[in-house]
Structures are given as C-alpha cells and as structure tokens.
Design a protein that fits this description.
Helix content is 27%, strand content 26%. The chain contains seven helices and 13 strands. Strands 6-7-8-9-12-13 form a six-stranded mixed β-sheet. Strands 1-2-3-4-5 form a five-stranded mixed β-sheet, covered by helices on one side. Strand 2 and strand 3 form a beta hairpin. The longest helix is centred in the first third of the chain and has 13 residues.
C-alpha cells in the first residue's frame, strides 16, 4: 500500500510529495524545497522512515515545483523526469527566479521524459500517467486506481483550478483535462494537489465554481 506524505515548501507553499510503500522504496514528486532548513526536513524524513529514493518526478516545470531538483540530484543522484512539453520551464529556471527576485540553484536538465500511458514503478507500487495540459502544456497527473488517489500538480484544487495566465497556459485545455481525463477516474478519487488541502473528484464535480 502506498503512503503519501507531503511538505509545504518555499515562498509559494508548494506541496512536495514523497510516496513510499512497504518495501521502503520511494519516489519524490515536485521538490519545492528552497532553503537548507527545508532540504534537511526532507532528508531527515527519508532517513527516519529508512526510505530508498528511486526516482524524481515532476508534474510540471514551474519554478515552485522544481526548486529542490538540484538538491535531490546532489544528494540522491536522480535527475528530474518530466513531460517533453515542460522542458522549456526547466531551461528557464534561473531566468524565472531572477524575475521573481528569488535565489535558486538551477535545476539539472532531465534525461528521461514521461508521457501519457507511462507507468511509474517503485517497490510493489505503480502509478499511471495521464497528460493533463492547461496550467502548463506538459502538466501530467499520476494516479493509482486501486488505492483511489492522484497527484495532480496544479491542475485541480479544492474549490479552484490551476492558473492559466502564466506562459503557455490555456483555459480551454485545462477544463478539458479535468472533465475528460480526471472526472472519469471516479468521484471517490482523492486529489493531492500542488498547493493547499486535498480534495476529491466528486466534491469538485458538484461544487467547483469553474466546473459546474
């Protein structure tokens, strides 16, 4: 069974996820750690739980979701994996940080790309991948149907949806991704998102003002 643990990191309070199962193998999704204190908090958790990191996965390439990639690479040796359509944002990491007036350690570039239909495996566990563009062109969502949860990045939030006013965002694409790709996964699916509290597909289908 998969355990989902999150930290709210950085000035954007981005949800960084560590997923692990009974084998102690884990994956890190969207590392937003930006300070030495946050780096230590993440690593201390991995040591405390005796976890073995197997992969570094990104739901998309925005600055708040990739700020910790350099630390993960330096500490555990894993390059980020991302959809091809969001590699641009990793390339522009330093420029984006400068625009926001933030310090950053530029993320290493990915070697492995993830696309819809890929299966992310660690330990005894598997996550399916779907391409859910709109917030960014390469946004991807990972889900486990049997255990009833998804890691959706900034696609869908509690009572809200991802921004589309950022570079290459598209509102029509985002709404289509949610309604045509996330909703069919079922109302009981728990949605772990990039900021704030989790929600469910059923709640958002009935109550989200952007979707009803």
């Amino acid at each position: 069974m998969i355990t989902v643990h999150n930290f709210a990191f950085g000035p954007f309070q981005e949800n960084t996820y560590i997923l692990y199962d009974e084998t102690k193998e884990c994956i890190i999704i969207d590392p937003g750690n930006t300070t030495a204190t946050e780096d230590k908090k993440l690593s201390d958790f991995i040591v405390e739980k005796q976890l073995v990191v197997k992969r570094l996965i990104l739901t998309h390439g925005h600055i708040d979701h990739i700020n910790g990639c350099k630390y993960i690479f330096d500490t555990y040796g894993f390059l980020p994996e991302i959809h091809a359509n969001d590699v641009y944002f990793v390339e522009k990491h330093q420029a984006t940080a400068t625009m926001y007036g933030l310090a950053c350690n530029p993320s290493p570039m990915p070697k492995s790309l993830i696309k819809e239909g890929d299966v992310v495996e660690f330990g005894n566990s598997k996550l399916n991948t779907i391409h859910t563009p709109g917030h960014s062109p390469g946004s991807i969502t990972f889900y486990n149907k049997e255990e009833g949860f998804m890691i959706a990045g900034d696609v869908l939030f509690y009572g809200s949806i991802g921004r589309t006013d950022l570079p290459m965002g598209n509102m029509d694409d985002l709404i289509a991704s949610i309604k045509n790709k996330l909703f069919p996964l079922g109302d009981t699916m728990k949605v772990y998102n990039g900021h704030g509290n989790p929600t469910t597909i059923g709640f958002e289908r009935l109550n989200n003002p952007f979707l009803v």
